[in-house]
Amino acid sequence: MEPTTLTVGGSFTVSAADCLNEDSTPGDVQVDVFNEHREEPQSFQAPVDDDGTWSLELQSEEADIGLNGVTATCFVSPESDEIVAEYDFVLVTVNATQATPTTDQPPATPPPAPPPAPPIAAPATPQQGEPTFTG
Predict the structure, then answer these.
(1) In the chain, domain spans
(2) Which of 1, 15, 76, 134 could form a disulfide with 80 if both were Cys (CB 3.0 to 4.6 A apart)?
(3) 48-75 pLDDT per residue, tens
(4) Sign of the torsion angle spanned by Cα atoms 124, 126, 127, 129
């Protein structure tokens, strides 16, 4: 099953194989989604191909936020309780969509440029004569 983490409005696909009766006819797949906030699972029917493979795409909703357990069972027929195959339990996490932040402030302006550096003095030149002191 992919993906196992998504946001509200995203979809995930549940798929498997080996849903064939003893006479090689396709069985009937029921996918159950358990949510930590619901008492009863949501159940969905998945179409089964002639070779016993099946795939079902489900879309997440606001009510699915949190941890969800997904499992599936292949029955002989829609009217039967006889199990042909049971599929592994998989956890899916549905996260809330993140709101786009809005601001009422104008865009930030860059800081002012630093003042220019003072000019560099010319190098000193040697002078001939005796040193003097001034004070």
Answers:
(1) 5-95
(2) 76
(3) 999 999 999 999 999 899 999 999 999 9
(4) positive
